[in-house]
């Protein structure tokens, strides 16, 4: 990941925020809450409200981490239909394609921050039983994946 792919505010935050090596301690069955960077939406200190994302889940082995595809700006979950289907067939993994908020079939929201998009996934993935998973993102989806990985470096045990 190059420093040029992160906004100056996010870069400052990632350089100054450190997690203990062993994670954040005991967690519930879903993700535990961790601090997020100051919201680029102007709602300082408030946790972003998640929206119910539209998705397509291709079935596979539950024992192996699912592959989760996150599209770029102006994209949708259908951008990854062919590769998702091929990977599900060839690897036997579950494969999830997701429409980000304000994209495709997902609801619209005035909060378009990466923090909000990360929160949407933090709520969706445990509901679908996809923790841990492999995040694969393009452009905006890649930045969302990086923020989620910074917020959740280790899945709950």
Automatic annotation (TrEMBL):
Keyword terms, alphabetized: Hydrolase
Name a GO molecular-function annotation.
carboxylic ester hydrolase activity
Q: What is its EC number?
A: 3.1.1.116
Segments forming domain AB hydrolase-1: 65-154
Catalytic reactions on record: 1-octadecanoyl-2-(9Z-octadecenoyl)-sn-glycerol + H2O = 2-(9Z-octadecenoyl)-glycerol + octadecanoate + H(+); 1,2-didecanoylglycerol + H2O = decanoylglycerol + decanoate + H(+); 1-octadecanoyl-2-(5Z,8Z,11Z,14Z-eicosatetraenoyl)-sn-glycerol + H2O = 2-(5Z,8Z,11Z,14Z-eicosatetraenoyl)-glycerol + octadecanoate + H(+); a 1,3-diacyl-sn-glycerol + H2O = a 1-acyl-sn-glycerol + a fatty acid + H(+)
Q: Which InterPro entries match?
A: AB_hydrolase_1, AB_hydrolase_fold
Instruction: Decide whether keyword Kinase is in the record.
Output: no
The source's domain of life comes to Eukaryota
Q: Does the keyword Repressor apply?
A: no
Q: Name one GO cellular component term.
A: mitochondrion
* Top-level enzyme category: hydrolase
Q: Which PANTHER family match?
A: PROTEIN ABHD11
- Family, as annotated: Belongs to the AB hydrolase superfamily.
Q: Per its record, how is this protein called by name?
A: sn-1-specific diacylglycerol lipase ABHD11
Q: Which gene encodes it?
A: ABHD11
């Amino acid at each position: 990941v190059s420093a040029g792919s992160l906004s100056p505010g996010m870069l400052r935050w990632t350089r100054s925020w450190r997690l203990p090596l062993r994670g954040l301690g005991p967690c519930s069955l879903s993700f535990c809450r961790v601090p997020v960077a100051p919201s680029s939406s102007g709602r300082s200190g408030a946790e972003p409200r998640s929206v119910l994302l539209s998705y397509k889940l291709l079935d596979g082995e539950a024992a192996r981490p699912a592959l989760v595809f996150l599209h770029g700006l102006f994209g949708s979950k259908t951008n990854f239909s062919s590769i998702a289907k091929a990977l599900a067939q060839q690897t036997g993994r579950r494969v999830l394609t997701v429409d980000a908020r304000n994209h495709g079939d997902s609801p619209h929201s005035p909060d378009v921050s990466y923090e909000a998009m990360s929160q949407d996934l933090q709520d969706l993935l445990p509901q679908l039983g996809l923790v841990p998973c492999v995040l694969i993102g393009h452009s905006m989806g890649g930045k969302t994946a990086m923020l989620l990985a910074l917020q959740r470096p280790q899945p709950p045990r």
